[in-house]
Q: What sequence folds into this?
């Protein structure tokens, strides 16, 4: 390099060193086995595969750390000498394709602590990998036996990202299911006749498939994450990889993720949880990062890049006769079908107006949420004074100076928990907002569907016992989206909703335990009747207070207390509040429809489903 180039590189190194120490506390040094790429990271468009491919010729790699939202990354060699050689060859000289600038490198003392894709070694329960399931000769026979003709009467077709061929039964991508009464004229190829007996010999599993899907992937092609339709197939999905290794990505709604290499001629079996509750897919790219060595542990293994060739997969399934009865209802179309058919809550219109459902929902909430809370505001506030521990912990953990927004703050019982933060709240009820204002808190009236605040203004948000008052999925999603919008990048929100399950692990929620205290074994309402809303031409079940929920959508009665002197003979009015009680996993599924939100934690707390989520960092 020229003297001018050396000065420029040194200046950029110094600037990067200050930034790294400020953001991570990690220092640069004169020699190390770890290199920092100062001017290339995820925000630059660079991919881990490209970094590994560039540095792999210099020696064994133990880590490539890519931090979200950062313009730098790290490469850890096994030996310091290899890192020194890479530095001398690449620093200030090599142009990376993604950045089109010369790389600036620096030695650093350590790699930032972060959750790493390759440390996700916990495979889904029920996932089985059988290596070398077939021979090279059998592999060649299977590849050559596929007739890819897409003419009339043939089940082969060219999809956008791959070629596909069906045998036995055709999988229909328009409804993600199979026409079980319309088998294809071609049965499974005779070249697959060994499969059943071979599988039994290798695994002890007896499985006789009657449906086969063959996919052909060229380098750069993949398949989106999906779960094979529960009602279409039985509990085993077996996929044979031919022609090339590929990494299959498995993901769970709770955030778990596993990258599973599928070697050439291997068979992967998805059973149990891996079949019914984890998505699986192939990321479209031309090479995969793999961990060498049999123990497959990142700390002891080393990274390499596997360039994809043309891969053909044979996926064997068996058609399910009847409906699915699995133990994973959240992901089961059969369960949702049964639940839908038995649901008592439907808002329908005889007109052709597409917006009628939303208007009816808004009217229902106005009559049986907003108006009710205005009527009972004073009495309701008297019953809401004790902060729940997990919510208090969330508020207390906020750094000094943070801005907390409480959506649906009621009388402001969570304000004042942390004396070192700024608090602002909103509530639909004028009565409850007035109570909070009289207590000295900054609260305004607003519906959670439209929060009139500047986007990104809040460091944190809580929304406790609010979203279950919204009567359609679309409106519940809109409320969560509004919460996400007011959060700053990296901001967190804690959401609580009533759970349909009021008893878990034989432990009753505090709601059920108060039956004896408040009702003395008696209920103000009977369980077997409905409350009719004549203006909307609908009726919903009336819940019996302090008992298990029997319905997903219902009215919960609230009876005002007697006059303070106790001498009134006037009938005490009963108000009906609308609730949608959430089932396990429902809140997480809803939140995953928001693109810039990731789930940090999901848990059950005294009859509530709770979700801690974070807005993606820019």
A:
């Amino acid at each position: 390099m020229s003297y001018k180039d050396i000065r420029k590189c040194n200046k950029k190194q110094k600037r990067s060193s200050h930034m790294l120490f400020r953001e991570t506390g990690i220092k640069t040094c004169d020699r190390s086995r770890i290199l920092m790429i100062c001017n290339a990271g995820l925000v630059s468009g660079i991919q881990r595969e490209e970094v590994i491919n560039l540095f792999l010729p210099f020696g064994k790699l133990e880590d490539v750390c890519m931090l979200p939202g950062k313009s730098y990354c790290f490469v850890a060699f096994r030996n310091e000498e290899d890192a020194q050689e890479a530095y001398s060859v690449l620093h200030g000289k090599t142009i990376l394709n993604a950045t089109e600038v010369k790389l600036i490198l620096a030695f650093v003392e350590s790699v930032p602590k972060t959750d790493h894709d390759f440390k996700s070694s916990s495979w889904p329960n029920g996932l089985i990998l059988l290596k070398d399931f077939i021979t090279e000769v059998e592999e060649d026979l299977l590849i050559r036996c596929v007739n890819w003709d897409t003419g009339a009467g043939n089940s082969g077709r060219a999809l956008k990202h791959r070629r596909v061929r069906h045998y036995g039964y055709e999988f229909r991508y328009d409804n993600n299911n199979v026409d079980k009464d319309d088998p294809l004229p071609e049965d499974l190829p005779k070249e697959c006749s060994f499969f059943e007996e071979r599988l039994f010999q290798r695994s002890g599993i007896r499985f006789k498939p009657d449906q086969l899907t063959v996919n052909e992937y060229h380098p750069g092609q993949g398949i989106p994450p999906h779960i094979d339709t529960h009602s279409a197939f039985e509990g085993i999905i077996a996929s044979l990889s031919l022609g090339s290794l590929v990494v299959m990505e498995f993901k769970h709604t709770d955030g778990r993720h596993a990258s599973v290499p599928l070697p050439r001629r291997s068979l992967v079996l998805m059973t149990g949880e891996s079949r019914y509750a984890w998505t699986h897919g192939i990321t479209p790219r031309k090479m995969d990062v793999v961990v060498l060595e049999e123990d497959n542990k990142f700390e002891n293994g080393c990274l390499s890049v596997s360039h994809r060739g043309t891969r053909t997969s044979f996926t064997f399934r068996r058609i399910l006769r009847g409906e699915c009865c699995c133990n994973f209802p959240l992901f089961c179309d059969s369960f949702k079908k049964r639940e839908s058919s038995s649901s008592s809550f439907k808002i329908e219109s005889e007109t052709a107006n597409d917006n009628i459902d939303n208007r009816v929902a808004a009217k229902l909430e106005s009559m049986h949420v907003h108006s009710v809370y205005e009527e009972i505001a004073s009495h309701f506030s008297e019953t809401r004074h004790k902060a729940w521990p997990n919510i208090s912990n969330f508020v207390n953990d906020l750094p000094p100076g943070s801005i907390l927004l409480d959506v649906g703050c009621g009388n402001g019982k969570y304000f004042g928990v942390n004396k070192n933060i700024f608090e602002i709240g909103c509530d639909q009820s004028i009565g409850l907002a007035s109570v909070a204002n009289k207590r000295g808190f900054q609260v305004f009236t607003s519906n959670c569907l439209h929060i009139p605040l500047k986007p990104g203004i809040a460091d944190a948000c809580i929304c406790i016992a609010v979203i279950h008052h919204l009567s359609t999925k679309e409106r519940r999603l809109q409320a969560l989206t509004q919460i996400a919008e007011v959060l700053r990048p990296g901001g967190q929100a804690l959401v609580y909703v009533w759970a349909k399950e009021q008893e878990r692990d034989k432990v009753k929620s505090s709601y059920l335990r108060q039956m004896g205290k408040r009702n003395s074994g008696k209920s103000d309402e009977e369980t077997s009747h409905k409350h009719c809303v004549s203006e909307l031409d609908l009726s919903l079940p009336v819940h019996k207070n302090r008992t298990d929920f029997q319905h997903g959508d219902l009215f919960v009665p609230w009876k005002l207390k007697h006059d303070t002197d106790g001498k009134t003979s006037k009938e005490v009015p009963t108000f009906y509040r609308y609730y949608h009680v959430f089932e396990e996993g429902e809140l997480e599924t809803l939140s995953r429809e928001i693109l810039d939100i990731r789930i940090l934690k999901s848990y059950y707390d005294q009859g509530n489903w709770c979700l801690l989520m974070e807005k993606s960092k820019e």
The chain has a mean pLDDT of 83. The CA atoms of residues 515 and 521 lie 7 Å apart.
